[in-house]
Write a structure and sequence with these properties.
single chain, 181 residues, alpha+beta, paralog of FGE (formylglycine-generating enzyme), four-stranded mixed beta sheet, 9 strands, 10% helix
């Protein structure tokens, strides 16, 4: 929906305008189906929500979970491409070395919401105070994690979850591939 092939080159239309695809940036504006298809084509899969969170926020050395991939320090422009970066687009992979997770994963917060293979359901024991609102979303949706370049710093944390329908690609969504150990 946002990509165009002109004269043999691929372009994207985004907040910056029409520009050539930068292969060093995360893929953005893909549906769950497209992300899943690419992972399968590559011999990989989408991570589960719990795998994503472990890769983002688990410190194996200290045997503890941190609030963010880089630790418990609040997000800043040195950690991630969030709203306050004012880039209005994805940044190249490796642009935020101070935001790297304990497992060495780059940019798990910011740039793009990342699709997971997990269904969006309430956590065990969750009781909704607004069933007419919350409960209707607990069907036919997948969990996304990590925020995007449009997410404010005050709103993000490693455990923050979002959800969308599987066919939607208008939002700032991308993915990362996972593999079995």
């Amino acid at each position: 929906m946002y990509w165009y092939k002109l004269d043999g080159d691929w372009y994207v239309d985004d907040f910056i305008g029409r520009r050539k695809i930068n292969p060093s940036e995360p893929v953005c504006h893909v549906s769950f189906y497209e992300a899943d298809a690419y992972c399968r084509w590559a011999g990989r899969r989408l991570p589960t929500e719990s795998e994503w969170e472990k890769a983002a926020c688990w410190n194996e050395e200290k045997q503890t979970k941190t609030a963010f991939p880089w630790g418990d320090e609040p997000p800043s422009e040195k950690h991630a491409n969030l709203l306050e970066s004012f880039l209005w687009g994805c940044s190249e992979i490796g642009s935020y070395p101070d935001g790297t997770s304990h497992y060495g994963c780059h940019q798990m917060i910011g740039d793009v919401w990342e699709w997971t293979s997990s269904e969006f359901v309430g956590y065990p024991g969750f009781k909704s105070g607004f069933s007419e609102y919350n409960d209707k979303w607990f069907t036919n949706q997948k969990v996304l994690r990590g925020g995007s370049f449009a997410t404010p710093q005050i709103s993000i944390r490693g455990s923050y979850r979002n959800f969308f329908r599987l066919d939607e690609r208008w939002m700032f969504c991308g993915f990362r591939c996972a593999d079995d150990a």
